[in-house]
Amino acid sequence: MIRNRDDVTQLIIANKVSKGITWAQVAAAVGQSKEWSTAACLGQMTLTKPQAETVGELFGLPDEAVAWLQIVPYKGSLPSAVPSDPLIYRWYEVVSVYGTTIKELIHEEFGDGIMSAIDFSLDIQREQNPAGDRVNVVLSGKFLPYKAF
Predict the structure, then answer these.
(1) pLDDT in tens, 109-137
(2) Domain range for residue 44?
């Protein structure tokens, strides 16, 4: 019995491993970016019925899991305020060290507002480098100014 979206995520991860499926393969089947498709499979996005059915077929999910994929999830995937996973912690470190710099530069360039995580895209690529490959991450979010009322 599936009790919540987390149960579906765990089922997807287990079947991904057992079937040898890549996130790029999921993205190609779903018709979205690998970044969005991965987030959706990890329980952070809502899939349309056709997308959910495609994911269900890829991972061999029961109908109940396919239905859960179409429910708006509770967003936020970190189990604690300060992450313990080393890779995720490095992102936390980036925001801790550079967060105020990013804020200052966005405000200087755009004014008082925020970068949307809703009208947003994410691109992760391998960057070849003789000194060791690099992770190239591009975050692109619409600027949303605060309004006076």
Answers:
(1) 999 999 999 999 999 999 999 999 999 99
(2) 5-68
